[in-house]
Design a protein that fits this description.
The chain is an alpha/beta fold. It has 2 domains: 149 residues, Periplasmic binding protein-like II (D-Maltodextrin-Binding Protein, domain 2, 3-Layer(aba) Sandwich); 120 residues, Periplasmic binding protein-like II (D-Maltodextrin-Binding Protein, domain 2, 3-Layer(aba) Sandwich), CATH 3.40.190.10. Helix content is 39%, strand content 21%. The protein contains 11 helices and 14 strands. The strands form 3 sheets. It has a 6-stranded mixed β-sheet. Helix 2 packs across helix 9 and helix 3 packs parallel to helix 4. It is globular, with a radius of gyration of 20 Å. The relative contact order is 0.19.
């Protein structure tokens, strides 16, 4: 059986477009001026640029995070501007080039950013039930005859991005464990839609027979009415994945990183806004919280090597 992988949007072009949206010239944001001597905020930027991975989709995730932007701006006393990307790589590259100060990552994309972009986890989100994590899902259109991974053999699989945890890494392992085959062997082809929202929308519309996503973004999209609550059926669910982190550039002033962490934790009092976001708050995080994700990536590589990939 022939197989082929199709990327819907070239990552490098989108990364470049994202960098352009962050501004040209000196990549480092200007720092505050006129602060009194001894002010810990004297080295803070005049504007805080905050990258967002496309978990729902570029514009959709900005709308989801809009209440947080206002809260952070007021709490920190500095404008906080969210910068969405159309691909995970765009946010990683922006942090690598010092064109964002903070970023919302998935666990796998965070591990990549920590390795190559000087990222440091400072907080992690809580799901709507208060758990420090979420689940990867494989979903099919409502009424589909596909009820298991094995039933989907020979179909087209929609995934998010090779940098996605729940939209690539975890379901890849699940598929290999369930079938004994690489996804590229079990499915006729694999398409990367770029965001969880795009995968879910295409499955809901019947354009994809099966897709990988996660329960957090599925809840958010159904609550917003973007997809009907009964439009897809879950045929596979992973174990709990470590919660998605918010990371800072390691070279930022410690006072700014601490203030951002405290503000994110303080946002837990905004229950109405959090409910609309499909989350219940943030708690402090460290880089070590994502060692289990690094082990998952190692496991995927080992399993793939066993199959000659």
């Amino acid at each position: 059986m022939s197989t082929r992988m199709t990327r819907l949007v070239p990552i490098l072009l989108l990364a470049a477009a994202f960098l352009a949206s962050c501004g040209s010239g000196d990549a480092t944001a200007p720092t505050r001026t006129g602060a009194e001597g001894g002010d810990a905020r004297a080295d803070w930027p005049d504007e805080i640029r905050f990258g967002l991975i496309p978990s729902e989709g570029g514009t959709d995730i900005v709308e989801t995070f809009k209440p947080l932007a206002g809260f952070l701006s007021e709490t920190l006393g500095v404008p906080v501007v969210f910068q969405p990307a159309n691909q995970y790589a765009g946010v990683i590259t922006a942090m690598q080039n010092r064109q964002v100060e903070f970023a919302y990552f998935g666990p796998k994309s965070y591990c990549e950013a920590a390795r190559i972009a000087n990222a440091e986890a400072i907080a992690k989100e809580l799901n709507a039930e208060g758990l420090e994590g979420y689940h990867s899902l494989l979903v099919v259109p409502k009424g589909s005859e596909v009820s298991s991974i094995e039933d989907a053999k020979g179909l087209t699989l929609g995934m998010v991005s090779p940098s996605s945890t729940s939209g690539y890494l975890v379901p890849t392992i699940g598929i290999m464990e369930a079938t004994g085959s690489l996804p590229a062997e079990h499915f006729d082809r694999i398409v990367f839609a770029g965001s969880h929202g795009a995968v879910m929308a295409q499955v809901a519309q019947g354009d994809l027979p099966i897709g990988a996503c996660n329960d957090l973004d599925l809840l958010t999209m159904t609550r917003k009415g973007i997809i009907p609550p009964d439009a897809v059926e879950i045929i596979w669910e992973s174990a709990l994945i470590p919660a998605s982190p918010i990371a800072a550039r390691r070279d930022l002033p410690a006072s700014l990183k601490d203030a951002m962490r405290d503000a994110l934790v303080g946002f837990g009092s905004e229950t109405e806004a959090l409910a609309a976001m499909g989350r219940s708050g943030w708690v402090p995080a460290t880089d070590a919280d994502y060692d289990s994700v690094r082990l998952l990536e190692q496991k995927r590589e080992e399993m793939a090597a066993e199959h000659g990939e």
